[in-house]
Amino acid sequence: MINMSETELAAMSFPGLHETLWDEREFLGWRDVQNYLFGYIVFWLDDKARGFMLRAAENQMPVGISAMCVICRTAQPAPQVSLFVAAKAGKAGQRGSTVGTYLCADLACPNLIRMASHRRSDSNGSLTLEAAQGRGMITRLQNFSERVLADIA
Fold this sequence. Notes:
Layout: H1 6-11, E1 27-31, E2 38-45, E3 48-56, E4 66-68, E5 75-77, E6 81-87, H2 90-94, E7 98-104, H3 109-116, H4 129-149
Antiparallel strand pairs: 1-2, 2-3, 3-6, 4-5, 6-7
Helix pairs in contact: 3-4
């Protein structure tokens, strides 16, 4: 995990990783069962796992409006989207620097795109909408993780 201390790693809750079917998801995201404000995302980048810890905003967005997750780009009722911040890696994070973005509150984007895509093909008929969305999610996760790693000093 690129932005966690040894103490945070030791306290982290894990989902059933042995049950994760990586071929059926772009990343694994979960909320900490012992402290729901914390969440974690792990994805594969160049055959290596990359993960980071997030902290959710304490308050939900208001009911009655829509919001969009930056990773899966799915519009949904605002309470189902949350502002998350990730401490920057290294000394910047130790000084309190963070980066933030809006994500699905349950961090379950891979499940959401599979429910919403209906497995349609793109205009060439070669790539399903689900696969295109999946590639986009990985690119956006990589970009976000690069922001977490930026300016390590």
